Write a sequence for this structure.
């Protein structure tokens, strides 16, 4: 069962990427993002994609340029996540056959991203919009739009966000911080998956 949870591994090192990716998949999280402001992110993506690309959607976050999109695709990544709604990046991602999740916060950004071909919308930082804001925007978005709450979300408030219309979540420091071992990540991932499954019953 694939869950609408994206693990954000900001700061992950290439030599630990495969072990962390492995425990995430075992816990039930198969969408994994390495932000491009991590140490040697393309090498981490390359290693994870080579080892687990058949079983997981692996890609990059903090993608800001067309050059970034090209480099991620060349490394085997299949998902592009951005903090902003740069329509050129969205269009380039889709042209390269990659999934596109741009960051949005306003109705204008939401609709611009969808018109450019985004697969889903990353509500970021979601604590600024809040569940009530998402509920209001969801009322006017196309019914099939997948919105991912990112920033200030976790096991304690999954149910509230889902009730407001969130389709999924991006989890950063709640699942990984530099220095966490694979077993640290496994414990957090297990808790997050259990809470997600309970909230989506």
């Amino acid at each position: 069962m694939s869950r609408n949870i994206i693990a954000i591994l900001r700061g992950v090192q290439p030599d630990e990427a495969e072990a962390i990716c492995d425990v995430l998949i075992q816990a039930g999280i198969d969408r994994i993002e390495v932000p491009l402001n991590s140490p040697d992110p393309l090498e981490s993506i390359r290693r994870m994609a080579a080892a687990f690309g058949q079983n997981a959607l692996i890609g990059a976050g903090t993608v800001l340029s067309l050059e970034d999109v090209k480099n991620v695709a060349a490394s085997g990544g299949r998902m592009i996540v951005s903090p902003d709604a740069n329509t050129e990046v969205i269009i380039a991602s889709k042209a390269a056959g990659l999934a596109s999740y741009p960051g949005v916060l306003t109705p204008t950004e939401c609709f611009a991203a969808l018109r450019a071909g985004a697969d889903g919308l990353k509500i970021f930082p979601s604590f600024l919009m809040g569940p009530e804001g998402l509920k209001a925007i969801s009322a006017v978005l196309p019914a099939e739009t997948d919105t991912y709450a990112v920033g200030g979300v976790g096991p304690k408030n999954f149910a509230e966000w889902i009730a407001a219309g969130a389709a999924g979540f991006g989890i950063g420091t709640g699942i990984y911080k530099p220095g966490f071992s694979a077993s640290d990540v496994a414990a957090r991932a297990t808790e997050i998956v259990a809470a997600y499954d309970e909230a989506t019953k």
User: Anything to note?
Assistant: The radius of gyration is 16 Å.
